[in-house]
Amino acid sequence: MVNSTSLPLFPIPICLYNYGRDNHELNIDLVNDSLSEMIKDPKGNQRSNFGGWHSKAGLEKTYSSFDTLKNKIQESCDDYCDAYGFVKGLQVRQLWSNINHCGDMNVGHHHSNSALTGVYYPAKCIVDNKCEFNYSEGNPLQPGIWDGENGGSIYFQDPCYGLKFSRLRKIQKPTAFNLDAYHTYPVSGLLIIFPSYLIHTVTPFKEKLKRLSISFTANYGTS
Hints:
The protein is an alpha+beta fold. The chain has helices spanning 24-40, 64-84, and strands at residues 15-18, 49-50, 53-54, 90-100, 105-109, 116-121, 125-127, 130-132, 142-143, 154-157, 181-184, 190-195, 200-202, 211-220.
């Protein structure tokens, strides 16, 4: 009998922290404060957003809701580092809010000037100025860049763009070893933390709604 050993060499650690309904009141405040900031500063910043609204960074200095979220993200970043063998103590800074409307998107980009980055979803969406929440305990990451029907997904792309297995094109079943993209849709209370070099994109949608997310960067010390 032949012994076989499989090693997941060079994996990309993406970690999901699902706060669920425990963050409900905070999520309401985050949505309201984001909408207030958009009224105060309707122009915002132009970054990866094609259409949509990208707030100025540093909202944790203006709103207590964002400061509370920053502290929660800080704890999760420490857990991330501890789980994957990195030194803890990353400083979470530069929280900003993103609001996309019908037809808006965020082009593929990375945040390679930081150590970690991530996205938090306070709500599923906003329809007719009312928040919709979809708390769930399941794993929302799915194969591919979208579900084939709905827009507004965020998808993460393999830095090798699928070239690692370009000759192994006949896939029996999708696994982390043969896929070159994963996606998810906003899940209320979900925080996703990932290495800043990982390219991520937000697809546009046709529905008459607002998609709201909060992003951040984290570094060691003053870097």
